[in-house]
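Record type: monomer structure entry
Structure origin: computed from sequence
Chain ID: A
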Amino acid sequence: TVQLYLKKQGIDKLEYLVLTHPDADHIGGADVVVSKFDIDTVFMSEFTKDNKTYNELISALDYKGLSWSTPNVGNAYTLGSAEFTIIAPNTTYSDPNNSSIGLILRNGENGFLFTGDAEEEAEYDILANGLDIECDVYKAGHHGSKTASTKELIELASPEYVVVSCGEDNSYGHPHAEPMNLFRSKGMQLFRTDEQGSIIATADGKDITWMWSFFERRPAYMKEYLAEEFELKGSVETVTIMNETAEYGAVTINSVTPEIAVFLPISTLAGMHEFSPTVTMSAAYTLGSNLLSA
């Protein structure tokens, strides 16, 4: 998935590849990325594992003649107009999660905080190192687990947005209620991959804009709602996004397998279907589309 996304963006070279820690859900597919892209620098956690996923990654690095290292806390690296600073790991830990590489990425006035799967112990060490972690966007630690996102870390980082990366109906029950309630109590806007699919934040140094693909995944009740509200014969497999000043509506979904939604201009919708563009706008806004004007 990562490889396909990068290819679609026209990317064939990576200045940095940061693999936070060796758990399979964080390095799975990294061997393919290593094999197919030119990479300048590879950062990996010092914590190693002896399993198939990790060994395939090491083999891919060897094949490309790439070495890896664990960056020191406080080191800063330039990435285009942005810069990222390493904030973790601050010591040697006995488990992979707390051994995660953490970083704060800044582009102009915009800041993004990434802590991998670091848990409470490692988070307190991040707080103790004195580095500035105030940010606009926080990728929730450990997939929104109650073992991460301590109140102290969240209050110091003070993000406006929180992105939770977790699979739909995952066996761990992520995200857990404790961190989600903390985020809500602080008035933070939440994005969740289990509900909205792929989430893309674009920062220009001043403003952050968001796009997501709720047509990839959404709860069963959403599918039922869409199937009942609108019917579109045949399978829709494309997404069309007009410029930001256009009006939008959502056409759903194959009535048999309501898995995909498509965005089209309101004028097109009005010509294709016998329902009101106003109703369509309302339905699409309910889905949480950031493409619609509030």
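Annotation 1: The CA atoms of residues 160 and 209 lie 13 Å apart.
Annotation 2: The longest helix spans residues 52-64.
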